[in-house]
Structures are given as C-alpha cells and as structure tokens.
Amino acid sequence: MEEYVTRSEFEQFKKQIEQMTEPMRAINVNVASQDVINRLDELKQDQTQELKTVSDTWLETLQDHYTEHKKGISDVKTVLSGHSKFFEEHGKRLAATATKEDLAALKAAQDARFDKLEATQEQILKLIQKNAGE
Question: What local confidence, expressed as pLDDT, does residue 57 receive?
C-alpha cells in the first residue's frame, strides 16, 4: 500500500526541514575604493590642519595675554616701589614730628624760662628803681 501525503502535511514537513538547517553566517566584507580612501585622507589632513590653526591661534592669544599681564605686573611693581619710597620718607617725617608729649614738655620748659625771665626782669626793675632813688 502506498501512502500519499497531503499538501498540508508536505508543507509542514518542509517547514520542519527548513528549521533544522543551520542558518548561514553573514559575511560582511568592507571594501573601500581608492577614491574613498583618498577622501578620508584629505579629511584627516583638513582636520589636522584645522586643529593646528586653532591651537596656534590659542597659543598666540595666550602669549599676548601673558605679555600684557606681565607688563601690568611690572607697572604695579614700579608704582609700589614709588609708594614704598614715599611711605619711607613719610615715616621719617613722622618720626621727626613732635608728639603731644614733646609739645607738653616744650611748653613746660618755655613756661619755666618765662618764669625765670620775669623774676630776672623784676630784679632788674628793682635795682633800677633803687639806683634811680639814690
């Protein structure tokens, strides 16, 4: 007896066979043409040149600012040096300036001299009057 397979049984069998086979691995081969390679090299050179230009510009700007700041600091040092000399001279003048205590001592000495001068003047006047009366 021969067995016949129905169409649906055959489709089912076919699906089972297809599922049992191993899927074939996909192979990806990237092949670049010489034009693409040349263009990539050009882009790399352009980027390198642009980076160098930006870097050089940045360094020049940094150097300019450094030079400006260095000059500014030098100017500040010059001004401070002048102020230092001024304050040194001012300090000498302050040291030579009389204090309240100095003025009080000077006044006391002056008052003592005036007192002596008055006493001497009185003695002279008495002697003059005594000699004039004789």
Answer: 92
